[in-house]
Design brief:
634 residues; alpha/beta; Rossmann fold; 4 domains; ten-stranded mixed beta sheet; 19 helices; 27 strands; 31% helix; globular
Length: 634
């Protein structure tokens, strides 16, 4: 086979950028309205107006929410990330087998990097973002160099004055900065939700109205589910200047409301105890229910004669019987009417425990007795993380019982549901997933994302909030395992996933081509040298492997098997769906050995061909003959 520069003899280059959100939206629009496609594959907005029946508001005045910097939010969303997530097995628990993730990094960049691998895969998101109280930590509102800002902040590159910090009330763009921080993150988070997914967001009075408007825009007003009021304290604050603020809000939005159904809460023993069986009805325990109703019903006015002889002239004044006279006596014949022990009382309908729903519809007021309070949350944190300095204890951590309520209404035990929290803080969400799985033998998985924000006072083992996240989950795993030690494994706890893989945000393992390089021979020569040897110093094969996985659309927990083929190492991913070879010297025997296994895709390092164009061309043709049409180099 002849070598040459023909495209058919050249493998594709692996795209090292995160998902192009704008391109995805354009593709969705063209799928919905193929008639708006122009010759160049662009969108004809005049045709779109026609397709929509001209029902397009083109006036200047329209309902909506705007603020300084909103337009830049879309630039931020559309700017792909060229970062990567480096694996840290030494900080993990059961790295090779666990499906749980803890990612240390700026959540905006991380959300971008997760777009390809986790698009439409997350069942539930819970976040507890900064409330914008005037002194809490906040992300910068200039995102043009988001990854660079993060690297400077964490000391991975020389700082240039770009720092994360606080958002004070004296700032002229107090609310705008907070909105600029939240909007892109919510937008990207929505992409990760399944069609039957849901997001819960904790907030207080400072930004609840703005958050509601932003969520209406991002998720759609039609997908609003509820505003939950959480009673977060168990006693009033007597020192309050005006009112004792005893509650926070939790906004609930579904990805697509018609696809989302709420899970019922489990019934309690106290609720079941309200049912009795005084007449030994074979259908089991029941409780009486009223037969009168306020709503007008034309057939709901009639007299009733009790079996004991008493005549009831009609329903209570101003109301109607719920059933027509015919239906009432049919219910009585079926022994569903209770007349009291003396058979002369106002009749009631028997509501059988066996016929009620298996669970309870959740209400929008969550009391601290049921779901915990802030002091309980801090106590839980202190039980799992040892602090030498009390200044480092997080004040905004949430109780596991609160998040457990969310898991109960939004996930199922056997659904392998992914739960995401990209403001992980003290790790309550991950802890709760482990706890709920232990209670109902569930198989939920978690993804936690936390910025390594420095603690007020560095400790020996804890220096950042991300350290708290990892330490708490580690201790929670140890305690759950210790609690099962020596017990018969009747509930399958030994098979439960009690671990986590740690990844850290960093620059891509591959040095990008610099199009802005000076156009003199020496500078171009240096750039060409970098293009040949383009892997950053200090990066391992595992670093490169996981970047390729992530940017090829595979989840970070995808199974990887190490093979030895033709004396070289090849990674077989997802049961052989893709082969990744990171060898620096490829051979024809290796190419043939990989092709013989017939993976769907193959990715190799470009430097592995060492400039041998004929070997590269042969590889393309060999893979094609085996039906492997996706062969890429990086």
């Amino acid at each position: 086979m002849a070598s040459g520069g023909l495209d058919m003899n050249e493998p594709e280059k692996l795209d090292l950028r995160s998902n192009d959100v704008a391109d995805d939206k354009k593709h969705e629009l063209l799928c919905l309205f193929p008639e708006i496609r122009t010759e160049g594959g662009h969108i004809d907005f005049e045709r779109l107006r026609l397709a929509l029946g001209e029902n397009v508001d083109v006036g200047k005045e329209r309902y909506g929410m705007n603020w300084p910097g909103k337009a830049d939010c879309f630039k931020t969303i559309q700017a792909p990330s060229i970062g990567t997530l480096r694996p840290c097995p030494e900080e993990s628990v059961n790295f090779d087998t666990t499906e749980n993730l803890i990612i240390e990094g700026d959540n905006l960049e991380v959300l971008k990097l997760l777009q390809k691998s986790y698009l439409g895969k997350v069942k539930m998101i819970y976040i507890d973002p900064p409330y914008n109280t005037g002194n809490d930590f906040i992300y910068p509102d200039n995102f043009s160099e988001s990854l660079q800002t993060y690297l400077e902040y964490t000391g991975q590159v020389d700082a240039k004055g770009k720092k994360f910090g606080t958002n004070t009330e004296t700032d002229g763009r107090f609310h705008s900065k907070w909105l600029n921080m939240m909007y892109p993150r919510l937008y990207l988070a929505r992409n990760l939700l399944r069609d039957d997914g849901v997001i819960f967001i904790s907030i207080d009075d400072n930004e609840v109205d703005n958050l509601r408007k932003v969520c209406n825009e991002v998720f759609g007003e039609e997908n609003f589910v509820a505003t939950v009021i959480w009673e977060k304290v168990y006693s009033p604050k007597s020192t309050a200047k005006y009112f004792s603020e005893n509650h926070d809000f939790i906004l609930v939005y579904s990805r697509t409301k018609i696809d989302w159904s709420i899970e019922l809460l489990p019934r309690t023993d106290e609720q079941n105890a309200r049912y009795h069986n005084p007449d030994n009805d074979p259908r089991g325990p029941w409780k009486p229910g009223g037969l009168d109703a306020r709503n007008y019903y034309s057939k709901g006015k009639y007299a009733i004669k009790c079996p004991g002889g008493r005549v009831i002239e009609g329903p209570p004044a101003g109301s109607y019987w719920r059933y027509s006279e015919e239906n009432f006596w049919q219910l009585d014949a079926d022994r569903r009417i209770w007349w009291g022990s003396d058979r002369n009382q106002v009749p009631a309908i028997k509501r059988f425990l066996s016929e009620v729903k298996a669970g309870i519809v959740p209400e929008t007021i969550w009391m601290y007795r049921e779901v915990g309070h802030t002091q309980e949350a801090k106590k839980e944190l202190l039980e799992h993380v040892k602090f030498n300095n009390t200044d480092n204890v997080l004040d905004t951590v949430k109780p596991t019982r609160l998040i457990q309520r969310m898991l109960q209404v939004a996930t199922t035990a056997d659904g392998q549901d992914i739960v995401l929290d990209f403001f992980a803080g003290g790790g309550s969400t991950g802890h709760t997933v482990l706890k709920q799985n232990a209670e109902d033998a569930g198989n939920r998985q978690f993804i936690l994302v936390q910025l390594p924000e420095p603690l007020p006072t560095a400790e020996k083992a804890l220096k950042t909030i991300a350290d708290i996240t990892k330490d708490r989950i580690r201790q929670a795993v140890n305690r759950l395992n210790a609690g099962n030690s020596g017990k018969l494994d009747l509930d399958g706890h030994s098979n439960q996933d009690r671990g986590f893989r740690v990844f850290k945000l960093a620059k891509s393992n591959f040095k990008p081509w610099d199009a802005q390089v000076e156009h003199d021979p020496a500078a171009l020569e240096r750039q060409l040298e970098l293009h040949v040897d383009h892997i950053r110093d200090g990066r391992t094969a595992e670093d490169i492997l996981y970047e390729i996985l992530l940017k090829s659309g595979f989840q970070l927990t995808t199974s990887v098997e190490t093979l030895q083929l033709a004396g070289k190492t090849v990674y077989s991913v997802a049961g052989g769906e893709i082969f990744i070879c990171l060898e620096g010297e490829l051979t024809l025997d290796l190419i043939k050995a990989m092709a013989a296994r017939k993976p769907t895709r193959v990715v190799c390092l470009d430097e592995g061909f060492a400039g041998n164009d004929q070997l590269k061309a042969n590889a393309v043709q060999i893979f094609k003959t085996k039906g492997i049409t996706s062969f890429k180099t990086v």
